[in-house]
Amino acid sequence: MASLREIQTRINSTKSTKQITKAMNMVSASKLNRAQAHSAKFQPYMLKMQEVLGTIANGTTGASHPMLEKRPVKKTGYIVITSDRGLAGAYNANVLREVYREIKEKHTTDSYVLFVVGKVGVQFFRSRGITVTDAITGLNDSPSYVDVAEIVKRTVSAFTVGEIDELKLCYNHFLSVISQEVKVETLLPLGEIEASSSTTYEYEPSEEQILAELLPRYAESLIFGALLDAKVAEHASRMTAMQSATDNADDLIGRLTLVYNRARQAAITQEITEIVSGAAAQQ
Amino acid sequence: MNTLHVNIVTPDGEVYDGDIRMVVAKTISGEIGVLPHHVPLVTPLDISILKLRHEDGGRTLIAISGGFMEVRQDTVTVLAETAEQADKVDYDRAAAAKVRAERRLQDTKLSELEFKRAELSLKRAINRLSLKDYGRD
């Protein structure tokens, strides 16, 4: 059995680890709140845009746009959203595993390009010798639209100019604080857009032109929406991971304390035995 | 009541929400004024200053960097990537952006896309800065 002092050292180190995980848990909880609020603020924009687009798409039969049409896929673009920092449970591993599998299954070396968000993802692909075409790292915890506008626009324009024929979005979708789901969605070409209203609008200057202006923006805001969603999921995932780390630390401390007490008692018993037998020998 | 409900939303949240007598906006094909009982309309907006005329005669100016305006049943919704009222604009940042964009435009080796991007960024900066002088008259 380990000596009393060894056990005490282990208890102390577990305690300090627990302090850290607990602090991280609380930090993530408050960040999660903020991220959720941010995501909620973005919703009206998204909904409104969907509504207008849906109305246009439904009202016009003749209007078409390259972003709506399927074409033979020679090259696929992937947007992979990961976090900058680890210690978020299986958050990054889940999405990266999914993307890696998809790439291995469906693609040869030059039939795909990767746009990666987050350091963890960039390192993952670099270490496997996969080229990352474009990356953003060091994004703050509630990114504003302006922060990501550049990469988002570049990605969407890669589709418009024909560099890629399909754009997929891979990220963690926030279901609840304890569960996140990996999503791989085809973003472009855009599928059907649901219409919710049937107002007939006047278009200024023309429907086609409006569609040409609106569709890229729509795609951009879908990416931004996914990014916000992934941020929420990241904080939730980190929070749960840190919560269970704290719980585990508690368990471990409990068990170690038990061992410590037993060892202490054994030592005391032994001392008493020694004293008693020493006294008996004197008589 | 003869008012329009104006709602300006950006991806980072709602910027303005209120009742207004008239909206003057600059579309990509020219200026347009919207009064109550306007027909339903959808139009893209230019990088410009959106003018909201209040019922008491006062006005609110908002710098927007492109976007859309939807008019329906006395409700005007503006979707913009960014929208700022005069007191929210970071003028120092806009001035810096202007200088940066101007310098980039000097570069003769720019591709067409890069040139266009720099041009747009210059336009946005000038638009924001113009809000400062607008407030004075």
Question: What's the short story on this structure?
Answer:
Chain A is an alpha/beta fold. Chain A has helices at 4-59, 91-106, 119-127, 145-160, 207-282, and strands spanning 76-81, 112-117, 134-136, 166-174, 180-188, 202-203. In chain A, strand 1 (76-81), helix 2 (91-106) and strand 2 (112-117) form a beta-alpha-beta unit.
Low-confidence runs of chain B? none
Helical/strand content category of chain B: alpha+beta
Mean pLDDT of chain A: 86
Q: Helix coverage percent of residues of chain A?
A: 55-70%
Q: Mind describing the biggest β-sheet of chain B? A: 8 strands, mixed
Distance between the termini of chain B: 29 Å
- The helix tally of chain A amounts to 5
Please give the alpha-carbon distance between the first and last residues of chain A: 34 Å
SS strand fraction of chain B: over 45%
Helicity range of chain B: 25-40%
Task: State the helix count of chain B.
Answer: 2
Lateral arrangement of strands in the main beta sheet of chain A: 3-2-1-4-5
> On the 0-100 scale, what is the average pLDDT of chain B?
85
> What's the oligomerization state?
heterodimer
Strands of chain B, total number = 8
Global outline of chain B: elongated
The amount of beta strand of chain A, in percent, is 5-15%
Q: What is the alpha-carbon Rg of chain A in Å?
A: 28 Å
SSE arrangement of chain B, N to C:
EEEEEEEEHH
Characterize the largest beta sheet of chain A: strand count, sense, and whether it forms a barrel.
5 strands, mixed
